[in-house]
């Protein structure tokens, strides 16, 4: 099981700017926990997401010397990807590709067709610089805009990504709409169809419904799971009231019970959990 901690997603919609040094200290602490991947920043418009304007400075200050955790950053266009691939420390670039045309326009100011052209260009950059592109199929379980959603749309876009050589696709429950049954249905359609692809989930959930959603994903064969400590965050482009991320501590407890996770430094995890209140003020 690949466990991804997403402080970038927690930070990006936070109202108050988190000082760069606080970001660096927090991320360096997270690098000692044992997460497989750390979603640590984004190379996107500072006007659109001002909280992430210091990503380059933050990455330069991260200490990977005693960590096996790999870094992931989000990009929304070729310019951002060109910035990201210049960093040796970065292993993964993530691109939010919404299968909802309305949300894709809202999130990256582009149509699905334009966004797919961006994916092609970014994948070429990743291949040339020994990086891996992770595609987030946002609104992956439906959308609140009335855009058409069904399994054929999921299969179409997964197939397009597979044809480009994409190895990891994560279905994002961008506004927390997904039911456990929808999660099961989506993954059981995709995983057998594209066995060469690693399918993940980025689920937004409440304290009341996180476990059924997570259980549905795990039992359907998902092996890449995103979370954020204390469940902070959500997509600021989705709606005014953010739906929180799934709390990493809950995910870890569940995966340990399922005997799917055994490489977490629980003492360091607690230290990071204690840091959250000083970082997010």
Task: Explain what the structure shows.
The chain is an alpha/beta fold. It has an 8-stranded parallel beta sheet with strand order 7-6-5-4-3-2-1-8. The chain is built from 11 helices and 8 strands. α2 runs antiparallel to α11, α7 packs across α8 and α8 runs parallel beside α9. The chain is globular, with a radius of gyration of 17 Å.
Enumerate the strands of the largest sheet in spatial order, edge to edge or round the barrel. 7-6-5-4-3-2-1-8
Low-confidence stretches: 236-241
Q: What does the largest sheet look like? A: 8 strands, parallel
Strand content: 15-25%
DSSP helix fraction: 40-55%
Record field, number of beta strands: 8
Mean pLDDT: 93
The H/E string reads EHHEHEHEHHEHEHEHEHH
Structural class, by secondary structure, is alpha/beta
N-to-C CA distance:
32 Å
Which descriptor suits the 3D outline? Answer: globular
Rg, nearest Å: 17 Å
Number of distinct helices: 11
Record keyword descriptors for this entry:
281 residues; alpha/beta; eight-stranded parallel β-sheet; 11 helices
What's the short story on this structure?
The protein is an alpha/beta fold.
Tell me the layout of helices and strands.
Blueprint: E1 2-5, H1 7-12, H2 20-30, E2 37-43, H3 55-60, E3 70-75, H4 78-84, E4 90-98, H5 101-108, H6 112-128, E5 132-138, H7 151-163, E6 168-173, H8 180-193, E7 198-203, H9 210-219, E8 224-227, H10 248-257, H11 266-279
Parallel strand pairs: 1-2, 1-8, 2-3, 3-4, 4-5, 5-6, 6-7
Helix pairs in contact: 2-11, 7-8, 8-9
